[in-house]
What does this fold into?
Amino acid sequence: MAATTAVATLREGGTAAEMREEAMAAGGGARPADAGAAGAVPVAAAPAVRLAGLRKSYGQVAAVAGVDLQIAEGEFFTMLGPSGSGKTTLLRLIAGFERPDAGSVELGGTDVTRDPPYARDVNTVFQDYALFPHMSVLENVEYGLRVRRVAKADRRRRVQQALEMVRLTGFSGRKPIQLSGGQRQRVALARAIVNEPEVLLLDEPLGALDLKLRQEMQVELKRIQREVGITFIYVTHDQEEALTMSDRLAVFNQGSVEQVGTPIDVYEHPASEFVAGFIGISNVLERGGRHITIRPEKIRLLADGEQAPPGSHVESGRIEDVVYLGMLTRYVIALAEGGTLTAVRQNMETAAAEALGARGRAVSVAWRDEQTYEVKGESRASAAALAAPAAPDDPATGPG
Ligand SMILES: Nc1ncnc2c1ncn2[C@@H]1O[C@H](COP(=O)(O)OP(=O)(O)OP(=O)(O)O)[C@@H](O)[C@H]1O
Ligand SMILES: [Mg+2]
It folds into this structure.
């Protein structure tokens, strides 16, 4: 494959597999879409990505333990989950860097399970950006186009467009070492976008950035995704990032999907205690044999003698802890009927000293029943993992 050889001659050190991956990240893959662009049959009905029964184990570890997902064209889809829950493995299966033990990967309605990475119309932005250190920004971004033998004038035009999109016009001549972390991140993004892949895989691309830059880049990424209309599959373990950026998100736990839905669905109607705790603050109470969750912002702290709004459920408790957060104050309340709740209050009228002085005080809390949501059990994944068959299919033969 031309891409592999090109990278191998351009860069010394690193394993062959690493170099192949870098070539893929840089967009060195063949593009089936190019070949079929003229007179292509529209495949509006096919999702951009369809994963069916996907499994991948490393020894005893089921990194991906049977995943079924459909991601629509142009969707901003996020995979959210704790460290080790299988997010990167799933991205690598979609990109083709790993072969599944079972199950299939479809892109735009075509089964690519057995295809090598370069035959898939997918680009990956890795967490460490993996830029070529000896190449300029321009050379890094145009690399994938050069591998595909795009004519120079066309190449330069597309590189300029991509650099403009990530707001790096004027940086073409710099080497990666002369850039800040955020700028390097944007070069990695430009390098992937310039290839106009059907699907862009992003593995914690903002993980190394400070909070402010991360928030700016979140807005930029959303804008870019809207402008180019590429399907984004975005991996993060940051719940706020997932809630603010995604059209839909999947919450992962131990290699399985706990829940898929819009940010509002998942936040307001968590399917399990795991999801309730992972997205937002876990406020799970057992009342009358049912496990219910209430979001902290829905809980009203009643001042002395204050009446609860009609129709609300009232319980008494004691403030165990107070955390001053600037804009908000967080109260941890131990309830007389059992369980602990976290409630937040905007620091509109309360002074910091006053808020902090509330520790140890008796309080009443109130919420409306319609603001509680029943959750079923601790985790779907742990139940599924127990029921899952131990022996995977032979990876050499793959799925049938
Ligand atoms: N090449 C490998 N060999 C052995 N085990 C692996 C390999 N790659 C991943 N694993 C294991 O598979 C599980 C899932 O790993 P994966 O990298 O997909 O998690 P992740 O969700 O991306 O985590 P993080 O948020 O930390 O990046 C982990 O238990 C990990 O140790
Ligand atoms: Mg990972």
